[in-house]
Write a structure and sequence with these properties.
four-stranded mixed beta sheet, six-stranded mixed beta sheet, 14 strands, transport, 17 helices, D-Maltodextrin-Binding Protein, domain 2, signal, single chain, Extracellular solute-binding protein, alpha+beta
Length: 412
């Protein structure tokens, strides 16, 4: 999930709880500056967190094009990712929500739970051909509130030259991963790099080994999740993974890989542009190994969804819905995926995209079984995600065994 890169904000559950306590009926709120629904709409407002290039310009151009198609100009505001949710909550309380709002997909259900968003079915926006995980990420209480034009996930990158020199083939099972990482560790070079920091990003990078082994986020103190955490612990304890993983971000992991200080890394497709700027770096991408052959590799779904807030102005909402439908057109999904190194959300487009972009083929395959982080827990996901990364930190620092770390975290 590139969406998992936002790592510094207060737990959203607390912020939403504060919002729910406000004496406002968000499901019927109206913006203080909105024109009446009977007046012609010539401009709509949009808010997103694409404030860095190239996404800022590319998404801006797509919004402008879709606005023109809908007959409106776009008044866009971009905010830092860590500031988006607090701003959304503030705007909800002051009835100044934008007409179109982008959200990181794990945040959607908690915002929808406050009544601040309108179901997309109200505007007859088609959800045909979208991958199951994509729809799950945008759904709250059986209604779709947001759609992502493209999505992403994480996989295992490997340095072809380093592995070839060591006579190592890309691992497919945990035993193979541990053996390969150990053999590839020498001097300042570690066999593997991943992010285990105490944020949602640390949880995000752990989910593939947890989910692929049958672990369940509803109850983390199980044998399946313990086995996954034992793998992470063994890799750090053996020295195959740097203990700095406890603080690294995904960007740090990428830097280690590019510098030749890690032979393999867990990361996402958004790192590909940086990797490709280093022509001497020859790399490949495979699925993150499973505990034993035959298990399905299950990865978390990343990406941002576009929503229609409850502004109280039906005419503006209708125009906002037109823009969202446009962003999710086949043409825009394909162009966004190519420029942003992400995967089209429609299954019919993903296959074509994989054939045209072989470096992203593994990610495209993973999207078929990728799971939304809020799929089971909905608005309760952030609290449980916190327990998961807390357990990871406790185990990797040696303060408790994986089993005890998970029990302690589950009981919090």
């Amino acid at each position: 999930m590139k969406s998992a890169q936002r790592t510094t904000r207060r737990p959203l559950a607390l912020a939403v709880a504060a919002l729910v306590g406000l004496p406002l009926a968000l499901s019927a709120c109206g913006t203080s500056t909105a024109a009446s629904s009977s007046e012609a709409v010539t401009e709509i407002s949009v808010m997103d967190y694409y404030n860095n290039e190239p996404d800022k310009s590319f998404i801006g151009d797509a919004l402008t094009k879709c606005g023109t198609q809908a007959g409106v100009t776009i008044k866009r505001e971009t905010v830092p990712g860590k500031s988006l949710i607090s701003k959304v909550l503030q705007q909800s309380s002051s009835k100044t929500l934008p007409d179109v709002l982008m959200l990181d997909n794990p945040d959607l259900q908690q915002i929808a739970a406050t009544g601040a968003l309108a179901p997309l079915s109200d505007f007859k926006i088609s959800t045909d051909n979208f991958a199951e995980g994509v729809l799950s990420a945008g759904t709250y209480k059986d209604k779709v509130y947001g759609l992502a034009p493209t999505v992403n996930t994480i996989a295992l990158f490997y340095n072809k030259d380093i592995l070839d020199k060591a006579g190592v083939t890309p691992p497919t099972t945990w035993d193979e991963l541990k053996a390969a990482a150990a053999k590839l560790t020498a001097g300042e070079q570690y066999g593997l790099a991943f992010n285990a920091n105490p944020t949602y990003e640390g949880t995000w990078q752990f989910l593939p080994v947890m989910w692929s082994n049958g672990g369940d986020e509803k109850k983390i103190d199980t044998k399946e999740t313990e086995q996954a955490l034992q793998l992470w612990t063994d890799l750090v304890k053996s020295g195959s993974v740097s203990s700095s993983a406890l603080n690294w971000t995904q960007a740090d992991v990428k830097d280690q890989f590019m510098a030749g200080k890690a032979a393999m890394m867990v990361n996402g497709p958004w790192q590909i542009p940086a990797l490709d700027k280093q022509p001497t770096l020859q790399y490949g991408v495979v699925k993150i190994p499973v505990r034993e052959a035959g298990q399905t590799s299950v990865a978390p779904l990343g990406g941002e969804v576009w929503t229609v807030p409850q502004t109280g102005n039906k005419a503006r909402q209708a125009k906002a819905a037109e823009v969202i439908a446009c962003l999710n057109s086949d043409e825009n999904q394909m162009s966004m995926a190519k420029v942003r190194n992400t995967i089209p959300s429609k299954t019919t487009l993903a296959e074509k995209f994989a054939a045209e972009n072989p470096k992203l083929a593994t990610f495209t395959e993973l999207i078929k079984t990728a799971r939304a982080r809020t799929g089971e827990l909905g608005a309760d996901w952030p609290a449980q995600a916190t327990k998961i990364y807390t357990a990871i930190q406790t185990a990797l620092t040696g303060n408790a065994s994986p089993a005890d770390a998970l029990k302690q975290a589950q009981g919090q």
